[in-house]
Amino acid sequence: MDPVTRAEKTDVPDLLVDAEIDDVPAAAPTRLPGTPGTKRTLVYLGVCLVLIGLNLRTVFSSFAAVLPEVTSGAGLPGWAVVVLTTVPVTLLGVFAPLAPPLARRFGAERVLLGAMAVLTAGLLLRPLDLGGLVPGAGHLPALLTGTAACGAAIALCNVLLPGLVKRDFPHRLGLMGGLYTTAICASAALGAGFTYPVFTAAGEWTLALWFWAVPAAVVLLLFLPVALRQRPARHQAVKGGVNVWRSAVAWQVTVFMVLQAMMSFSVFAWLAPILRERGVDGATAGLMVSVSIGLQMLGSLFAPALATRFADQRAINTVVALMTGCGFALSIFGPLELIWVWTGLLGLGQGSLTAVALTMIMVRTRDGHTAAHLSGMMQGVGYGVGSTGTLMVGQLHQATGSFMAAGVLFLAVGSLAALFGYRAGRNRYV
Q1: Residue range 62-113, pLDDT digits in tens
Q2: What are the backbone dihedrals phi and psi of residue 109, each rounded to the nearest 5 degrees, phi first?
Q3: Residues 6+ apart with CB under 8 A from 37
Q4: What is the dihedral of CA 351, 79, 396, 96, to 10 degrees?
Q5: Is 243-430 assigned to CATH 1.20.1250.20?
Q6: Who is most buried in 14, 155, 237, 319, counting CB within 10 A?
Q7: Superfamily of 23-238 according to CATH
Q8: pTM value?
Q9: d(Cα 350, Cα 299) in Å, to the nearest integer?
Q10: Please, is 72 exposed, middle or buried when counting C-beta atoms within 10 Å of its C-beta (0-12, 13-18, 19+)?
């Protein structure tokens, strides 16, 4: 692909990176039930893909919403809480590189179906008490195994879904891309906002976590006829683009992604417990997290268009990184009377930060192959190393008995994100 001019790149930022772009022959469009090519069949596929996206973050935010109840009810030791908030994010990076070869072997649709089956099984397994099978086991083994299964499944979906959207809806990328990314943000908001009310109504934290297996199972059944109709074809990977691992620009973008991931997943894992430790009741804390994530959607909607209006993105990268770090820190030790302001600042900053970090994939590369390889590098390193954010918050809380040290940590992380965002935002290419 020829290098594109800045004017061409700034019209509509294409954040849907195709994980199958190196496949030869190219993957065929999804075969659908009913009459091929009709509007009804495409709508059905679009609904399935959006609903899959709507299940990709509930595992993080639902656990955080009832973390005190799970900790006391299951008798979790401190190390287990840290592991349960860290492992799923780490696995996003570990399993992301496996998605393209699995798709080449079995087809992206069938891999997605398998991932949704594993996600549903993990959500069902999470709250089980295995004490009846293994004396003394309790809830911990199922929580660990189920959470790990969910993280692995979500990693595969993260990589393959954007490519399916791009392949099957080439003339509706703006609509489908917006619906898909909004669904992922909404997933986190739903998990944060509805889990505690379900717990209040049911009286059991196990039922509150089991609740989220229902929508995953529904999507699994809806997507089943689509995946079974596919005919897997043999593909070979033909590499294109530059070696991103040897590019200084690629590493600057990747470190920027790492730092934003440290804050992003710490919001999902720890913001609700932080608010509850400050004296906010469980239902209000869940609502605050939901509103904050809702503001993330607003930030992610406008930030890419604003970022791509300019030749470089140094200013916006710096501003949104500082907004996020300060918003997180103030949510921890800022005046409680202004807690809605702090969580709102955090939401706007984090949504914009995540969006501009992903935008760097497109504006710092010259062709689709390089963009796909940079995306793979960013997801593998970004999620893998970015999970240390949730780990450090848990360890600091365990060591000090409060979240105050985590506030200082996020001021430092936000400052580093501003530094690397400034460097990644320069008008250079991988």
Answers
A1: 999 999 999 998 888 989 998 998 888 889 888 988 888 888 888 888 999 9
A2: -65, -40
A3: none
A4: -30
A5: yes
A6: 155
A7: MFS general substrate transporter like domains (1.20.1250.20)
A8: 0.85
A9: 8
A10: exposed
